[in-house]
Design a protein that fits this description.
This protein is mainly α. It has 8 helices and no strands. The protein has a single domain, classed as Growth Hormone, Chain: A. Helices cover 83% and strands 0% of the residues. The longest helix is centred in the middle third of the chain and has 30 residues. The protein is globular and about 55 Å long.
Length: 202
């Protein structure tokens, strides 16, 4: 379970880095409070619901490996538009598109990971196992938020606040992809806990 917990950390860390900076990023882009609330609040919540529905359908129709690989890498690709926006490319239209796609795909990745966490939980004490893994998920989120904020603060300059976002978004995107590949690489060779082998490839 410790090894599996480390894989959960890897899978989630990059996503947490990017997600935590989106609100401040939009503020520094001078978007209005109303636009941010609509984009990340109303639209973000709706896309999360859509992503949960699609993710739930997807994860039970393909092997867990496929669900994790597709949604994890897809999640990483959805961060690229934010990185481009930090260079002044695309404007508000790009942010709207990124918000919709990222909201759906990131939730699909969360559904796939949470399903795998349920698979990993021992039936004899599944509640305890899953609670511990879910707690780790929250801790990873906090760690990713802290790391992203530190990186952004270091990288930004007095004349270019957006420089910090560029670096954090780039690192977060790469770590999301690497974390997904690491999880798949390890579980391909050694399903852990062993009960994951029952659902990993079928």
């Amino acid at each position: 379970m410790l090894g599996f917990a480390a894989l959960v950390f890897c899978f989630r860390f990059g996503d947490a880095m990017v997600a935590t900076l989106l609100g401040p990023f939009m503020t520094d882009l001078k978007l209005s409070t109303e636009t941010i609330a609509l984009m990340k609040g109303t639209v973000g919540n709706v896309t999360s619901i859509v992503g949960a529905i699609i993710g739930g359908w997807f994860v039970f129709r393909v092997p867990r490996r496929t669900a994790i690989l597709a949604s994890g890498l897809g999640q990483g690709f959805t961060f690229i538009p934010y990185w481009l926006a930090a260079f002044g490319i695309g404007g508000v239209d790009l942010l709207w598109g990124a918000t919709i796609v990222e909201g759906i795909v990131s939730t699909m990745a969360t559904v796939a990971l949470f399903t795998l966490m349920m698979d990993a939980s021992d039936p004899e004490h599944a509640g305890t196992d899953y609670t511990l893994l879910a707690s780790l998920y929250v801790l990873v989120t906090s760690a990713g938020q802290f790391f992203a904020s530190v990186i952004a603060d270091i990288a930004m300059t007095e004349t270019n606040v957006l420089a910090g976002y560029r670096v954090s978004f780039a690192i977060g995107t790469v770590l999301t992809a690497l974390g997904t590949l690491a999880l798949v690489f390890v579980l391909d060779r050694r399903p852990m806990p062993a009960r994951i082998a029952k659902v990993w490839r079928r």
